[in-house]
Amino acid sequence: MESPALTALMPVVLLIVLGFIAAKVDWIRASAVKDLSNLVFYVLTPALLFRTMSTVKVGDLDFSPIVLYFLAAGIIFAGTMLVFGFNTLAAARALGHTFSNNVMIGIPLIGLAFGQEGLVTLFTLISVHALVLLGCGTVVFELAQARQLSTQGQPQGLARTLAQAIKNSVIHPVPLPIIVGLLFAQTGWSIPGVIDKPMQLLGQALGPIALMLVGVTLAYSKLGSLIKPAVRIALVKTMVHPVLFITVAWLFGLRGVPMATMALAAALPTGANVYMFTQRYGVGQEEVTASIAISTGICLLTLPIVLLLLEKIGY
């Protein structure tokens, strides 16, 4: 019988490998990486996020499993910041520890493992996943960046720092389309077909291009000393995150398919969106890029183990 984890992960692995090969044969030069990253971050990502959020009716969603998911993610995020300090590198690592590849891997995996019931829970998570993690991540990045500038001799008042961080966190290619899309959804309107179709195509291009960019960046990276921190991010994401979520879920009495779905979501490898953040803030690019590839590979082993663990505890 074909493994659901293998079926979901192989396209991701192949796209990363394809990007790696394209760089090695000089089809994509190192000078083009920044421009392609801008295309993904400023064009493809907003299109996908706005279109996803434009149909989300907040009142129709069951957020109880999602709250516990973010509780576990929040513990890991805060713990990472405590261990590595309040700086942009720590924020990049914290996002790498908690941001899952829910769309490219999660949707096919959950569909194969738990069917429609699992997909409903996953889609609820997807509808707010970027808003919560990327939104909070943006605030932390902005505050950490302001703090670093202050220590480098460019101080500014606390009120001004907070105001600037909030402004930069909202007027931003990630939170802004999420917020606008969510507000649009509550009006009951629908996106006109002539606009919706191009946005759909742009959104569909995000996953493959972002994953190929991971491969391209790997090809031009001198990993060496970065392997250890990259493996650490991958292990926290694929092992600590799901174990902590299962513990939290068990303590709060969450059971059944919703619990199992969230556990698998927590066990997924780091999403390529984290790479986009490191590119934007110019910190930890190679480390996070390597962790995306490594966590994807590790998941070939850890996802089946998580599935077996869920069956063992009788979710």
Please provide a written account of the structure.
The chain is mainly alpha-helical. The protein has a single domain (4-219, 228-312), classed as Up-down Bundle (Na+/H+ antiporter like fold), CATH 1.20.1530.20. It contains 12 helices and no strands. Helix 2 (33-53) runs antiparallel to helix 8 (193-220) and helix 3 (64-84) runs antiparallel to helix 4. The longest helix is centred in the middle third of the chain and has 50 residues, at 102-151. Belongs to the auxin efflux carrier (TC 2.A.69) family. It is found in: Cell membrane. The chain crosses the membrane at residues 6-23, 35-54, 66-86, 98-116, 122-144, 165-185, 205-223, 243-268, 288-310.
CATH class: Mainly Alpha
Silhouette: globular
The end-to-end span amounts to 22 Å
Number of helical runs? 12
Mean pLDDT: 83
The largest sheet, given as strand count, sense and whether it forms a barrel, is: none
- Global structural class: mainly alpha
What's the oligomerization state?
A: single chain
Order of secondary-structure elements: HHHHHHHHHHHH
Number of strands: 0
Query: What portion of residues is helical?
Result: over 70%
CATH topology: Na+/H+ antiporter like fold
Overall radius of gyration: 19 Å
Family: Belongs to the auxin efflux carrier (TC 2.A.69) family.
Main location: membrane
Keywords: Cell membrane, Membrane, Transmembrane, Transmembrane helix, Transport
Membrane topology: Multi-pass membrane protein
